[in-house]
Amino acid sequence: MNEQEAHILLKKYRSGQCSPAEKRLVEHWFLHFQIKDMEELDDQRWQEVQEAMWEQINAAPQPEKTRRLKKWSIAASILLPLLFVAYYFFSAHISLHQKKLTDIEPGGNKATLTLADGRKILLDEARAGDLAKQGNFVIAKTGDGELTYHLRQGAGSQENQLEPAINTIETPKGGQFQVVLPDGTKVWLNAQTILKYPVDIKASHRQIEIQGEAYFEVSPSAHDPFTIHTFSQEVQVLGTRLNIRAYQQDHNIRTTLVDGKISVSHSSSKQTKILKPNQQSILSNQDQALRVREVDPEDIIAWKEGFFVFNNTPLGRIAQDLERWYDVQVSFEEESLQELRFSGAVSRYEKASQVLDKLEMMGDVRFTFEDHHIHVLQPKNNR
User: Fold this and answer.
1) Which of 54, 72, 93 is the last residue of a domain?
2) Are the C-beta atoms of residues 372 and 328 closer than 8 Å to each other?
3) Domain total for the chain?
4) Alpha helices, DSSP H only, in 149-250?
5) Which residue, 47, 120, 128, 308, is most buried by CB atoms nearer than 10 A?
């Protein structure tokens, strides 16, 4: 974004021409700075905000490589500098309290591959190149840190094998990883996730198991559906992009379709829903009901692009994500704090203190932390 675009953003808001997402986020930030009416800022103050905003953006380091930007990442790149500018001008209205004895670094690419014969490979420590030979396949790590499979030269049939060889990739708390399965399907694993898959996946009718959260870009096959099993759900696809969040600790399994068409079924009752793009199924672990709702999938898959995106998200669920990504424990002074709702976008690659600062600015809450334990407290003025 150049200087002219930075100025245009604020002008768009003043003239009512912002997109709904931009308008919602701008108003959210400024409402929490006790600016109830943006028009209360006179022209001189608006000019000061614009100039300071551009200085902040211009001083920020440029990314090493260009990536495809989603609407939420564009909004974040615009509004986060705006947040710092607003804090500079209106800090007299804000009282933040945070105990920062030691900061906590964000997660990164970490995973362990366990081969069918029990051998373990620490993928984050392994060098790029061939890692192992397994049946007809060679397992390799690319220069970008992605795990891939390719057929060995002269590979023959494995039809006589009695049991399929099952590999497991597991990301720890504070870990994520990307793998290309032998059939060409791409999988992004979020923190604390387990993926089990057959090495000769086509011979096993493309059936895999997932526990945790993963985003899939399934290689199309008109005659061989791709089946994803969780602890109480099955998803069948022919070729599509989708996200599954299936942590044992959560109260439900959320399956979000980006494009294509999928069938989602309860493993026991066989209750089935057909999802279309921009829909999410929610399988309750309590009443076993399978429901469908409309969502913005870009918000759901923001994690794989490096963002936490909150859209009226309860603090209890945000706390779960922080625990998994920063490998911390979160405790609440009062249970009611878990129901507080937040909206906004924050980079997953910021330190924990920076994320907590922004959450304090978004909502009526206070954080302290030490020794990888985050305490969620009532604001002082509510005591």
Assistant:
1) 93
2) yes
3) 2
4) none
5) 308
Site of tokens 């509004």: 79
Q: What is the dihedral of CA 74, 79, 85, 89, to 10 degrees?
A: 160
Return the CATH number at 370.
3.55.50.30
Q: What's the confidence (pLDDT) of residue 370?
A: 83
In a domain, 181, yes or no: no
Domain termination residue (choose one: 93, 124, 152)? 93
Asked whether residue 140 is assigned to any structural domain, the reply reads no
Spatial contact of 94 and 87, defined as CB atoms under 8 Å apart: yes
Nearest to 96, CA basis, from 317, 370, 354, 373: 354
Does 215 map to a domain? no
Give the Cα separation of 14 and 293 in Å (integer): 33
What kind and span of H or E run contains 171? strand 166-171
Residue reference for tokens 């921009």 = 278
Amino acid at position 284, single letter: S
Helix boundaries (H) for the chain: 3-14, 20-31, 43-59, 71-90, 297-300, 315-326, 352-362
Indicate the helix (H) or strand (E) that contains 213: strand 207-217
Nearest partner of 362 among 29, 117, 136, 67, judged by Cα: 29
Q: Which helix (H) or strand (E) holds 342?
A: strand 341-347
Q: Where in the sequence is the domain holding 328, given as residue range(s)?
A: 305-382
pLDDT in tens, the chain (383 residues): 444 544 555 566 666 666 555 555 455 444 434 444 455 556 666 565 555 555 544 544 443 433 444 555 555 555 555 555 454 444 433 333 444 546 889 999 999 999 999 999 999 999 999 999 988 899 999 998 999 998 887 655 555 454 688 999 999 999 999 999 988 999 999 999 999 999 887 766 889 999 999 999 999 887 888 999 999 999 999 789 999 999 998 889 999 999 999 999 998 888 899 999 999 999 998 888 999 999 999 999 999 999 999 989 999 999 999 999 999 999 999 999 999 999 888 899 999 999 999 999 888 899 998 888 999 999 876 65
**Tokens for 243?**
């996200």
* 346 located within any domain: yes
Decide if 150 contacts 144 (C-beta within 8 A). Answer: no
Contacts of 4 (CB under 8 A, 6+ apart): none
Whether the Cβ atoms of residue 249 and residue 268 lie closer than 8 Å to each other: no
